[in-house]
Backbone:
């Protein structure tokens, strides 16, 4: 934590953020306004959000067993620390679809962010730009694609404490101040789909990520209890991408005025599943629009589907169960990650999603075969407290946590020392993870 003992390395010294917090408290009496301990953080959002916002962020399918399975899986894998290794500088950088990024972390696509902060997706997009890590925009966003891109670029222009801007190499040496991915919910009107992809590409989103596990919402009792489907309420948020799309509005603008759910029901969560036969067409169209940029499928939970994704032409997959929000009683995503990595890890880029809360979680997912991870609920909880400041505090804390875990754990390079390193972890099949309040008893 001594800033005079921090020689320049491949990555920013994220660990110094802990020191900044400590010094602000000791010298100025300035304490963080909320806890970044994940259990305390989710609890405190009950005070910052109304019921619709809180439950939409935290509702799970059924009894919540899949959400619990996600966290249980992390508990059962234990890190094996190594001693007397030189970790004075760490290399957290990794390459993701041609982008060299400073840490293997992405902002996951989460819809209707205006439920958590008035500026909605403009907040995490800006913070992602500041940090130089990828931002993924949801089709169910509550800000137009073009405005989110501008916010991301604005964040990338902000100088850090060293009075420099972090910029990382993009595809073919292009500008990659912060890589942008577009998460597509694909309806059954191909003209609207193409319009969305063209808008995304023109706005600098250069990876298409198709979500395949949410043709309709899973059964979420805590949302049912309060009829928590914001799109149906008059003046509802969540239609912004549809309202700003010329093709959708030409076809359905009049209907949207009478039925605020028209956009979400027909073009996002439409309740009518596609099949593998449709994917080659979509990949071809995205390649045509983007001059050959990567295509990723989000929602893979078994090796067979991962292999199929590779066979139809995908460059990457996201191993996720939608954070336990779709199928109750399903496998935890980390449970299936090793077999998926074994099947396609040398052929495809694997992004892990579902249950990431700490730097140790990131470490474990990378060690089990992911090339990078997505973080969702964490940044939503942060922005629900203080908007930009809250989102920034949570994400910088996560980066510091990962950096410190690497330092004290004895692992210098995330790609060379951690990625698919079975010796870095030990599996413990028994035991019960502590409950949310257990840390308070220690």
Residues:
């Amino acid at each position: 934590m001594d800033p005079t003992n921090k020689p320049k390395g491949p990555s920013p010294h994220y660990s110094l953020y802990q020191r900044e917090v400590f010094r602000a408290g000791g010298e100025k009496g300035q304490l963080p306004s909320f806890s970044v301990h994940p259990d305390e953080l989710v609890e405190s959002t009950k005070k910052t959000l109304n019921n619709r916002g809180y439950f939409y962020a935290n509702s799970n399918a059924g009894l919540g067993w899949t959400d619990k399975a996600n966290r249980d899986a992390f508990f059962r894998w234990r890190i094996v620390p190594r001693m007397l290794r030189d970790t004075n500088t760490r290399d957290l950088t990794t390459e993701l679809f041609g982008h060299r990024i400073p840490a293997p972390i992405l902002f996951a696509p989460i819809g209707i962010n205006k439920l958590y902060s008035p500026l909605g997706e403009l907040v995490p997009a800006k913070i992602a730009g500041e940090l130089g890590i990828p931002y993924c925009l949801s089709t169910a966003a509550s800000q137009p694609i073009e405005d989110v891109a501008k916010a991301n670029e604005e964040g990338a222009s902000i100088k850090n404490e060293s009075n420099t801007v972090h910029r990382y190499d993009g595809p073919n040496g292009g500008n990659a101040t912060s890589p942008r991915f577009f998460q597509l919910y694909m309806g059954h009107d191909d003209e609207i789909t193409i319009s969305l992809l063209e808008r995304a590409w023109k706005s600098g989103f250069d990876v298409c990520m198709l979500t395949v596990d949410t043709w309709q919402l899973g059964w979420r009792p805590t949302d049912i209890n309060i009829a928590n489907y914001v799109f149906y309420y008059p003046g509802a948020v969540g239609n912004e991408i549809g309202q700003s799309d010329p093709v959708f509005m030409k076809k359905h603008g009049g209907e949207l005025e009478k039925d605020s759910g028209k956009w979400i029901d027909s073009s996002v969560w439409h309740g009518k599943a596609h099949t593998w036969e449709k994917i080659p067409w979509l990949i071809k169209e995205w390649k045509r629009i983007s001059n050959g940029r990567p295509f990723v499928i989000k929602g893979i939970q078994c090796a067979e589907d991962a292999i199929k994704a590779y066979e139809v032409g995908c460059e990457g997959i996201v191993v996720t169960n939608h954070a336990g929000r779709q199928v109750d009683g399903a496998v935890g995503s980390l449970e299936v990650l090793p077999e998926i990595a074994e099947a396609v890890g040398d052929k495809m880029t694997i992004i892990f999603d579902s249950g990431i809360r700490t730097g140790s979680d990131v470490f474990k997912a990378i060690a089990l075969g992911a090339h990078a991870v997505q973080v969702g609920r964490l940044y939503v909880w942060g922005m629900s407290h203080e908007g930009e400041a809250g989102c920034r505090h949570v994400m910088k804390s996560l980066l510091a946590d990962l950096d410190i875990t690497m330092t004290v754990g004895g692992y210098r390079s995330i790609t060379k020392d951690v990625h698919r390193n079975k010796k870095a972890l030990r599996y413990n099949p028994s035991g019960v993870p502590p409950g949310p309040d257990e840390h308070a008893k220690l």
